[in-house]
């Protein structure tokens, strides 16, 4: 499943700017939805892992021009080949390992075409 292509400008809320003033300058920036395309829920982009609150991360959630920050639990699903999901608990549609960023895939295809020697499959000795 391809990744949703929704993009939004995130303006840091004044209280977040104040909290981080001594650590880093917070400026507006664009966020890209990390969910699978076709979801009906709000768009979502992970901003940072909450190191002080294990198992949670801060996500930007938006619909249209309405944006909010939400502290959400990580999805508990995992898969032996890919590891943990990487999305929040209760996310819609596919897990993170099932969502493909079409831009990254296009870049990888082009790079493999131009430099095939860099994209060889590892042998058992190399693993």
Could you describe the 3D structure shown?
The protein is of the alpha+beta class. 16% of the residues lie in helices and 28% in strands. Strand 3 and strand 4 form a beta hairpin. The radius of gyration is 18 Å and the shape is globular. The two termini are 28 Å apart. The model has no long low-confidence stretch (mean pLDDT 88).
Sequence-ordered SSE layout with sheet pairings:
Elements: E1 7-10, H1 14-20, E2 29-32, E3 43-49, E4 56-63, E5 66-73, E6 78-79, E7 83-84, H2 102-114
Antiparallel strand pairs: 1-2, 3-4, 4-5, 6-7
Helix content: 10-25%
Structural class: alpha+beta
Number of helical segments?
2
Side-by-side strand order of the widest sheet? 3-4-5
The count of β-strands is: 7
Gyration radius, in Å:
18 Å
Could you list some keywords that capture this structure?
single chain; 127 residues; alpha+beta; 3-stranded antiparallel β-sheet; two-stranded antiparallel sheet; 16% helix
Please provide a brief summary of the model.
This protein has helices at residues 14-20, 102-114; strands at 7-10, 29-32, 43-49, 56-63, 66-73, 78-79, 83-84. With 127 residues, it is an alpha+beta fold.
């Amino acid at each position: 499943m391809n990744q949703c292509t929704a993009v939004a400008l995130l303006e840091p809320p004044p209280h977040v700017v104040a909290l981080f003033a001594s650590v880093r300058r917070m400026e507006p920036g664009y966020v890209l939805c990390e969910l699978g395309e076709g979801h009906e829920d709000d768009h979502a982009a992970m901003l940072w892992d909450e190191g002080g609150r294990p198992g949670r991360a801060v996500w930007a959630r938006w619909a249209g021009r309405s944006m909010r920050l939400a502290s959400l639990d990580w999805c508990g699903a995992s898969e032996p080949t890919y590891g943990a999901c990487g999305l929040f608990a209760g996310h819609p549609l596919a897990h993170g390992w099932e969502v493909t960023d079409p831009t990254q895939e296009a870049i990888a295809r082009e790079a493999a075409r131009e430099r095939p020697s860099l994209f060889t499959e590892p042998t058992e000795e190399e693993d």
